[in-house]
Design brief:
With 351 residues, the protein is of the alpha/beta class. The protein is built from 13 helices and 5 strands. It starts with a helix and ends in a 24-residue tail after the last strand.
């Protein structure tokens, strides 16, 4: 492992991060892995692990850096410890990419013809593992970089985001192979054909008939600062903001109004002051005579006065009655619940 190979792996991390918001240059994802793939050539399995880990660390430091801000400002953790917490998170996430480099070095040395399909398959497997193991952290999956490329992402209705990730890695492998040896054009040709098929399917889906009838939906975003949303002194202001924006949206006569996740600055259906705010919201929905779908924090009191917080969604009909409820099942660790709560009891106040 040389400085050049480390620089190439870091460059891949930077290019891939730039394909995600806030820069959002999604086209970079289609060749962002090429420097890493070049760095992995003529390496040992051990150095391959280190290089892919370095790539992953750079990538995640550039995509989840904002966690520091959340932990510092809203969790009231000093800046240095908050930065170290974020760095630890990035290291953990990078560990899910570490096997990618070592495996590719091994496959190139033993079964080079399998590399073209093995690389994207391995990448998707590692993304799937990161999504589900230890509660999961499915942020910044490769396919999400294409969220603006509508023709490309239509294939997700069949293959999910993992299908898009597979295709992007396939293209990266094809480009890397033909740049290393012009005679190895077949992988790139196959990747181009598969990309053309995916885009063709995308345009087909985008232009397909939508079926009989339509529905007009108004989406209201209050853009309330996180530190104000749960401050009791701003409670009335937050609700007033959503009411004002909703009344303006009602001029377009929507069939449904949607507010964001945890839009209400109170526990919908809860006791105490929550009852007053819950009744007020039901009355507002009756007044506007339009169904409302919104998110709210809720809680459940279990035996022994144990309180479980939940992230919920409610659908109120025209009469303000609750017609549907959904409680989020896949919660964000340390953001919405505490894993190993008995051991990490001191973290609970942060949540």
């Amino acid at each position: 492992m040389t400085r050049r190979s480390l620089a190439l792996s870091a460059l891949s991390g930077l290019l891939l991060a730039a394909s995600f918001p806030s820069l959002g240059y999604s086209f970079l994802a289609w060749f962002a892995l090429v420097p890493l793939l070049f760095a992995l050539r003529d390496q040992t399995v051990r150095t391959g692990l280190w290089l892919s880990g370095s790539f992953g660390l750079v990538f995640f430091c550039c995509t989840v850096y904002w966690v520091t801000n959340s932990v510092h400002f809203y969790g009231h953790v000093p800046l240095l410890p908050a930065s170290l917490i974020t760095l630890l998170l990035c290291v953990i996430l990078a560990l899910f990419i570490v096997p990618f480099g070592g495996a590719l070095v091994h496959i190139r040395a033993t079964h080079p013809r399998l590399l073209f399909l093995a690389a994207p398959a391995l990448w998707v497997t590692l993304e799937y593992a990161r999504t589900h193991l230890f509660s999961g952290f499915p942020w910044a999956l490769l396919g999400y970089s294409q969220y603006r490329s509508l023709p490309v992402i239509q294939i997700a209705d069949l293959l999910g985001v993992y299908g898009i990730s597979f295709l992007i890695v396939l293209v990266n492998i094809g480009i890397a192979e033909v740049l290393a040896d012009r005679k190895r054009y077949r992988p790139l040709l196959a990747a181009a054909i598969m990309t053309a098929v995916v885009i063709g399917y995308g345009y087909y889906r985008l232009n397909a008939p939508e079926g009989a009838g339509s529905i007009r939906i108004a989406v209201v975003q209050g853009n309330i600062e996180q530190d104000k949303k749960w401050d009791p002194s701003y409670q009335g202001e937050v609700i007033a903001t959503y009411k004002r924006l909703t009344l303006r949206a009602l001029e377009q006569r929507p069939d449904l109004v949607i507010w964001p996740e945890t839009a209400t600055p109170f526990y919908f259906g809860g006791s105490g002051d929550n009852e007053k705010w819950t009744g007020d919201l039901r009355q507002f929905v009756r007044t506007m005579n339009t169904p409302l779908l919104f998110g709210s924090a809720t809680y459940e009191v279990k035996p022994g006065r144990v309180i479980d917080l939940r992230n919920s969604a409610f659908l109120l009909d025209r009469d303000g009655a609750t017609s549907a409820v959904y409680h989020k099942m896949h919660l964000v660790p340390y953001g919405e619940y505490i894993p190993m709560k008995k051991v990490l009891f001191f973290v609970e106040k942060l949540v």
